[in-house]
Amino acid sequence: MRKLLLVAGLAAVALVPSMAFAQSCEQQHDSQVATTFAGAGIGALIGATVAPRRDQGAGAVIGAAGGAVIANQASRPDRDCSHAYGYYDHNNQWHAHATDRADARGYYDRDGAWVDGAPNGAYGSDGRWVAASDPASDGYYDDQGRWSPAASGGYYDDRGQWIASASGHYEDGRWVAGHAAGAYDDNGRWVPGALSGHTDANGVWVADAQRGYYDSDHHWRAGAVRGYYDTRGVWIGATLSADAYGHDAGFQGGGDHRDLDTREAWLERRIESAVNDRSMTVYDARRDRDQLAAIRGEETDMRERSGQLSPRDEARLQSRLDTLSASVKQSVNGAGF
Question: Which of 77, 104, 131 is the last residue of a domain?
Answer without folding.
Answer: 77
